[in-house]
Amino acid sequence: MDASGSELGHIDLKSAFGSSLDIYDSSRNLIYSAKFRVFSNKWNVLDPQGETIGIVRSRMSFLEKKFEYQAGSRGIFTITSPAFSRDFTIVDEQGEVVAGFEKVSGFFSSGAYRLHNNSSEIDSYELIAVIMGVHSIRKRQSQAANSAP
Hints:
Blueprint: E1 9-12, E2 21-25, E3 30-36, E4 43-46, E5 52-58, E6 64-70, E7 76-82, E8 87-91, E9 97-103, E10 113-117, H1 124-147
Antiparallel strand pairs: 1-2, 2-3, 3-4, 4-5, 5-6, 6-7, 7-8, 8-9, 9-10
């Protein structure tokens, strides 16, 4: 939805048991798909033809949540959030802030985020796929930590 609450598109989560998804615009045209690579924690962002256009992966960091979006020829974008924060910042290779998002959902509700896109290289629909990748990676990390002996 936009700031006034008008629908700009929707996300099809496909299955309650998987993490793959499709993103559609307001005319119900498939814009992007996203899913984990087989046996990997790398999140692939795909164009409507199924070609990978970017990959989200977690980066090691002790004092913040850190991710990286490799967007092919458009460069590598770093996604960070201070520890215990719900706000994320996306910067390009020159250190310029190109977007930000914050989690706006409550503890017991599904993940909902507010996106602020200033990028001319990555459209908002693609950034939604990236955000859902960050969410899915964090969810997997949390499940792995909870199942450790």
